[in-house]
């Protein structure tokens, strides 16, 4: 298993997430095949030092809907980041992976080291 370590200091969240998604899929390997799961594990360090541009911490909203009447719950990026920065990163990377059966298997190889 190939292990890749990424330092998140002074990187923006979106660019970091897209770089992680490419590495998790194995596209940096010469023998890349889209139908084969890669043996790559990505570890992220210094996640608390990620930078945010603009007013994203106050203005960016995440919504969840339970399915019930008036069951929508919203929170800002700042609230979610203060509670669990690792979950925010995993959510960003998860949505950048291909929408197929391999996505749940690929995201297991992302490790956040606080």
Topology:
Blueprint: E1 2-7, H1 13-25, E2 40-45, H2 56-59, E3 61-65, E4 72-76, H3 77-83, H4 85-96, H5 103-106, E5 110-112
Parallel strand pairs: 1-2, 2-5
Antiparallel strand pairs: 3-4
Helix pairs in contact: 1-4, 3-4
Largest sheet: 3 strands, parallel
CATH homology superfamily of the domain at 2-51 and 85-112: Ribosomal protein L13
Mean pLDDT across all amino acids: 95
**Number of DSSP helices?**
5
Q: Give the spatial strand order of the biggest sheet.
A: 1-2-5
The CATH class of the domain at 2-51 and 85-112 turns out to be Alpha Beta
Give the CATH architecture of the domain at 2-51 and 85-112. Alpha-Beta Complex
CATH fold label of the domain at 2-51 and 85-112: Ribosomal Protein L13p, Chain: A
- Shape verdict: globular
Strand tally is: 5
Protein structure class: alpha/beta
The succession of helices and strands, N to C, reads EHEHEEHHHE
Sheet-strand content, in percent, reads 15-25%
Provide the helix percentage.
25-40%
Describe the protein in words.
The protein is globular and about 45 Å long. α1 links the parallel β1 and β2. The strands form two sheets. It has a three-stranded parallel beta sheet, with helices on one face. It is built from five helices and five strands, in the order βαβαββαααβ. The model has no long low-confidence stretch (mean pLDDT 95). The chain starts with a strand and ends with a strand. α1 packs across α4. It is an alpha/beta fold and 114 residues long. The chain has a domain of 78 residues: Ribosomal protein L13 (Ribosomal Protein L13p, Chain: A), CATH 3.90.1180.
């Amino acid at each position: 298993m190939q292990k890749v370590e990424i330092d998140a200091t002074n990187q923006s969240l979106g660019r970091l997430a897209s770089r992680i998604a490419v590495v998790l899929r194995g596209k940096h390997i010469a023998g890349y095949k889209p139908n084969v799961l890669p043996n790559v594990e990505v570890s992220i360090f210094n996640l608390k030092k990620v930078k945010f541009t603009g007013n994203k911490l106050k203005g960016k909203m995440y919504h969840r809907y339970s399915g019930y009447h008036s069951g929508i719950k919203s929170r800002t990026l700042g609230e979610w980041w203060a509670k669990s920065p690792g979950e925010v990163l995993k959510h960003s990377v998860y949505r950048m992976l291909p929408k197929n059966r391999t996505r749940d298997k690929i995201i297991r190889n992302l490790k956040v080291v606080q």
